[in-house]
What we know:
By secondary structure, this protein is mainly α. The chain has helices spanning 30-38, 48-67, 73-87, 106-123, 136-140, 146-182, 202-227, 247-259, 269-274, 277-303, 333-356, 367-391, 400-408, 414-421, 423-436, 440-446, 452-458, 461-464, 472-479, 482-489; strands at residues 10-15, 18-23, 187-192, 195-201, 229-230, 264-265, 314-315, 397-398.
Amino acid sequence: xxxxxxxxPARRERDSLGVKSVPRRxxxxxxxxxxxxxxxxxxQPPHPALVRAYARIKQAAARVNARLGLxxxxxxxxxxxxxxxxxxxxxxxxxxxxVLQAGAxxxxxxxxxxxxxxxxxxxxxxxxxxxxxxxxxxxVNLGQSSNDVTPTALRLMALELLDPLDAELGALARACRRxxxxxxxxxxxxxxxxxxxxxxxxxxVLDGWAQALDEAGTALRHAGEELTVVGLGGTAVGTGxxxxxxxxxxxxxxxxxxxxxxxxxxxxxxxxxxSLRPLLGCSAALRSxxxxxxxxxxxxxxxxxxxxxxxxxxxxPEVEPGSSIMPGKVxxxxxxxxxxxxxQVSAHDHAIALAAGAGExxxxxxxxxxxxxxAGALELLTRAARLLRERCLEGVRVDRARARALxxxxxxxxxxxxxxxxxxxVAELVKEARARRRPLRxxxxxxxxxxxxxxxxxxxxxxxxxxxxxDVALRxxxxxxxxxxxxxxxxx
Length: 492
């Protein structure tokens, strides 16, 4: 992200601001050189997917402009071939400026325009820096502006990066369901407010995690559908000035063919020029996905806590020693790291929200910030989901003996007795069980409130972990019994 070394071979280029030296062999030109010298903020170039998106747009525009008779076919062919080189990643000069640059992404856009012009001219027998016969502004950028190209490129970048994330979320959900299928009959304590509540099976817990991941994938795909509506052809402020009347319709159709997605022209190119709402919607879906994924990570950490003094219901794969001072300690390192990644995705979303709200009049100039954070969130969440699956969830072991002991030693069965004994009576039984440190079942038997067969049936795993109609006849019989009346009568 720095200017050419002093004394290195250079060529001289001129623009409206004057003359400047550009490295002789550089495929970029004076606009890019000025940006390299000015914008040194992150040390990070634009994302390769964004560069590929710019190149695809240039290919589509060149072909359509040739079809409309505005660009010689040979020139269009040369531009398209040059863009193929960029898309293949064989032209490092296409991304030599900082990702945070002048507003609206103009430097990144011009970086691509200059590289394509120089590559195309060389194919036509020209030399670098002469911009003849093909000029970066007059021909590569014909009928376009940074103000419609960059928001379109951002959408294409996001669509490309959404695909691997969708695949990873699906794989993680399937891993949850596989483990849930193995543990579908393992009953464990369910907890609310971090307090014992009612029984639940590990299969139900893991299916719940999988469903949350599936719903996150659905939300992301819906956000992706909104990204397929593009403002390309709107040029500077969405009015289409300098473009052919048929350009917008034709270029979106050609771009659809090139990227393999059905794109649609924005109903209002004016709105598409200043509104980043679809990109913000994608970011919001990423944030909600990260929120649920982070919650799953927290649960994994809590459920493996101890192992001697905590919940210790599951055992996670050991990936590293857990302490520099405590021998033998092993931490839930992978869920910790993934949870941090989820927090960072939320930070990316906050930056995108600020950028999306910073548009003014006919343009939002904050697209470079959106590009940085949207690509960062998409890739970080993809890697996080993969890490959690490969290095943690696929190796989780449920401690069935621990689950049985926790259920047997708790009072979580109490709620299942309420339809038969009544809320107040069961509450008294729970208080007595805690005070006397007695199992709830034993107290129910001691007071003669339910027969052993009925108690066993009501407190079976199937009855405790799913809906079941109340046996009204049994309730009437129980509440009419002398034992029940005597228990109620002794209450203060």
